UniProtKB/TrEMBL annotation:
InterPro entries: ABM_dom, Dimeric_a/b-barrel, FAD-bd, FAD/NAD-bd_sf, RIFMO-like. Residues 103-191 form the ABM domain. This is 2-polyprenyl-6-methoxyphenol hydroxylase. Gene3D superfamilies: 3.30.70.100, 3.30.70.2450, 3.40.30.120, FAD/NAD(P)-binding domain. It comes from Micromonospora humi. It comes from the Bacteria. Its cofactor is FAD. It holds the Pfam family ABM. Residues 613-634 are annotated as: Disordered.
Length: 759
């Protein structure tokens, strides 16, 4: 008997059609002489992954199939739906073999649908533990579409280490323990490589193999921060590689859950905001209770917000961003861990250990460390936390449960208990998608701290301390929540330790840190993931210009100059919020807007500027460094509906907005064409320009920048301009420069800060 396995990857959006295409040919496959089995399996962890499995009585039957019309028809059906197939990921194999080469183990098991979440919580931990077993290489989790049947398909160096491991009675608890209840009734098959069949494999089998790869930017970490950096680089045509030491994607809501309004604007720009809204729920307000009494309640559904506050588990965020990145031709490489790196005047050389234990050398122009709280990049750079890494003395637990109570939907709830003015109990409940489902954070029971033996527990999640129980959750609710509150259906739980701090620098040479690699803070306000996304949003467009050789010498320095002060402010605010009822109850609305990053400004950056004759005349207009607010009601000839300012600024380039009303000088209007041409030339084409005219102004006859009408004068009102003026909007949506009236020479000097000398 010979088995073949062919991996396929569907194009995004085509994955629902792969199954029907397979069914069209499956009957013909079953009728072929010598066929024993044919099956399409789905990758249980990758919605785009599939594996075609066939089994044949001998080589002759397999060759007849491969050379015959049925295989050709199957290829024709799958070709438009899937990526071009390279060499098979698995060689031909047989059960009745032997030898010293690699072996494959197929474990068939049943995972009932009502226990699927339980299985997916435990499986990543099993994969992590197995990586330390001598002889183990990798595995893939597959499932039979539409059924409860799953397959764990694992590769080992040889049969001996696998048989030694399976013969050890301790292995069930030591490695397979988290999914042991599902392994009571299994079918196991052992396959050997067909002699001569291994040459079709695209990877080497030696652990010492050293493959050299090159790229423009190596991104370490495939969380939201790293994925955002990669999406923004790929959108600009920059070659990048993304690696992550995790063997499988996250599958549970164990991290960030709140998506800020500003992040939603970023996702609109990236083209994923609809997917996020479809997968999440709106967080509509919050309530705070102290010693059982409600102290305040606030609605978050404020007028004028571009988007509301979204609740979305981080694993969904990663899924959505990973799918978007795939449309740009980049896929994170999981199970690939950064070992070390060096840098020189021309680039960075990184050593990467792959999932099969081999090593690769990656040569990149730049490296971005988005590898989280325990960052290898931060460690290898020797970065330190300013003032030391602060740690809360308490241990906390995080759980995912259903809660039965009479509380308003969509509200984040904080229950605090104080004694003599000192907080000694807290319970934070964030709604998740699903009836009565909440993420709850509260103090861990004392027994967990006792398990540390009096030693300092490490930051982050502590797997060695065990998992809190439903009784632990209920005890916290009994103490702090309204009487009669009941918790049920515990899906996931963990103990964690809160750390806080910010590194002394965000850049060293050609290497940068972002997200939790650069700053750690309490979860109060949900700042962590959103701040990391903002880091990458700020850095990526600058890196892209640098890779192309279009950046002024100091452009990359502005990343630290702009993001580190913001990081310091956020860390300090989150620490204060974590231990108090509220930071500023005098102005809750402003505090909310600040938490949502809508008030974020780089006003102190050396990369922003202005020439304004009368600043007072601009009123509350956005200043240099501020987020550029959207405006509606713009009119463009040939377009039958009003436009938004965001329709003009959307994209990967700078946007120059010139404005003129009826008092503008005609000669100055005529000169705008030359000004725009000069600006585009200085920016090397990385700039779009538009002329926004008051309704009473005649359009200039000379060809120049595209013209739009400020139909309802909303742009004039929002940006405070009269006569003539200009705003330069950066690719990250912040005001880089403003002038009133227009000063071409000042604009030219500002562009020099970004793009360098004349082109």
């Amino acid at each position: 008997m010979i088995r073949t396995m062919l991996r396929l990857r569907a194009h995004p959006g085509c994955e629902p059609a792969v199954g029907p295409a397979w069914e069209m040919i499956a009957g013909q496959l079953g009728a072929l002489p010598g066929g024993l089995r044919h099956e399409l399996l789905a990758d249980a962890l990758d919605p785009y992954g599939f594996v075609v499995v066939t089994e044949w009585v001998d080589d002759e039957a397999l060759r007849a199939y491969r050379d015959g019309p049925v295989a050709a028809r199957l290829a024709d059906l799958l070709r438009p739906l899937t990526e071009p197939a390279g060499p098979s990921d698995y060689p031909p194999m047989r059960e009745d073999g032997d030898g010293d080469g690699p072996v494959y183990v197929d474990v068939e098991l049943t995972v009932p649908r009502d226990r699927l979440a339980e299985f997916h919580r435990g499986y990543p931990e099993v994969v992590r533990r197995m990586a330390a077993i001598p002889g183990y290489r990798r595995e893939q989790l597959l499932r039979v579409p539409g059924s409860d049947t799953h397959h764990i398909f694992a590769e080992w160096d040889a049969a001996a280490p696998f048989l030694d491991w399976i013969a050890d009675p301790a292995h069930a608890s030591a490695q397979a323990g988290p999914i042991a209840p599902f392994l009571l009734d299994i079918r196991r098959r052992l396959f050997h490589v067909v002699p001569g069949g291994d040459d079709r494999r695209p990877h080497t089998t030696g652990r010492e193999a050293d493959v050299q790869r090159t790229t423009d930017v190596l991104v370490v970490g495939a969380g939201p921060t790293g994925l955002t950096a990669a999406v923004e680089l790929a959108r600009r045509g920059i070659d990048c590689r993304v690696i992550d030491k995790r063997a499988t994607p996250a599958g549970q809501a164990d991290k960030a859950i709140g998506v800020h309004c500003r992040t939603m604007e970023i996702w609109e720009e990236q083209g994923v905001v609809r997917e996020a809204m479809d997968a999440g729920i709106w967080l509509t307000g919050n309530m705070v209770f102290v010693n059982g009494e409600q102290t305040h309640r606030m609605s978050w559904e404020l007028p004028g917000l571009p988007y509301a506050h979204l609740g979305l588990p981080q694993y969904e965020t990663e899924r959505i961003l990973t799918a978007r990145l795939a449309t740009l031709g980049v896929r994170p490489r999981l199970g690939a861990e950064l070992v070390d790196f060096t840098q020189d005047a021309d680039g960075v050389t990184a050593t990467v250990r792959t999932a099969d234990g081999a090593t690769e050398t990656v040569r990149a122009t730049y490296l971005v460390g988005c590898d989280g709280a325990h960052s290898r990049v931060r460690d290898r750079l020797g970065l330190t936390f300013t003032g030391g890494l602060g740690r809360f003395p308490q241990l906390f637990m995080l759980v995912d449960v259903d809660v039965d109570w009479d509380m308003p939907d969509g509200h984040l709830l904080r229950f605090l208990h104080t004694t003599d003015g000192r907080m000694d109990g807290m319970l934070v409940c964030v709604p998740l998608r699903g009836a009565h489902r909440y993420r709850i954070a509260t103090l861990a029971p004392p027994r967990f701290f006792a398990r540390t033996g009096g030693q300092d527990a490490p930051p982050g999640f502590s797997e060695e301390l065990g998992e809190p129980t439903l009784d632990d959750v209920q005890a916290a609710l009994d103490r702090l929540a309204p009487p009669g509150t009941r918790a049920t259906n515990l899906r996931w739980s963990s103990v964690f330790r809160i750390s806080h701090g910010i590194v002394d620098r965000y850049r060293q040479g050609r290497v940068f840190v972002a997200g939790d690699a650069a700053h750690l803070h309490p979860p109060a306000g949900g700042q962590g993931m959103n701040t990391g996304i903002q880091d990458s949003w700020n850095l990526a467009w600058k890196l892209a210009l640098a890779v192309r050789g279009q950046a002024a010498p100091g452009l990359l320095d502005s990343y630290e100059a702009e993001r580190r002060p913001e990081g310091e402010e956020i860390v300090g605010r989150a620490v204060r919020m974590a231990g108090t009822e509220e930071v500023d109850r005098a102005d809750l609305e402003r505090q909310f807007l600040q938490e949502m990053s809508l008030l974020l400004s780089y006003a102190g950056s050396p990369l922003v500027g202005e020439t304004v004759s009368d600043p007072a005349a601009l009123g509350d207009a956005p200043r240099p460094g501020d987020r550029a607010p959207d405006v509606e009601g713009l009119r463009r000839r040939g377009v039958g509906h009003p436009l938004r300012l965001r329709d003009l600024t959307r994209g990967t380039r700078h946007t120059l907005l010139l404005y003129a009303d009826a008092t503008a000088d005609a000669a100055e209007l005529a000169g705008f064409a030359d000004l725009c041409a000069d600006a585009r030339r200085q920016a090397g084409g990385e700039l779009d320009a538009y002329l926004l005219l008051d309704p009473d102004v005649a359009e200039p006859r000379r060809a120049g920048p595209p013209v739009l009408r400020d139909g309802d004068r909303r742009f004039r009102a929002g940006y405070g301009l009269a006569g003539t003026g200009l705003y330069l909007i950066r690719p990250d949506g912040h005001v880089g420069f403003r002038g009133a009236p227009v000063d071409a020479d000042a604009l030219r000097k500002h562009l020099h800060l970004i793009f360098g000398g004349p082109r």
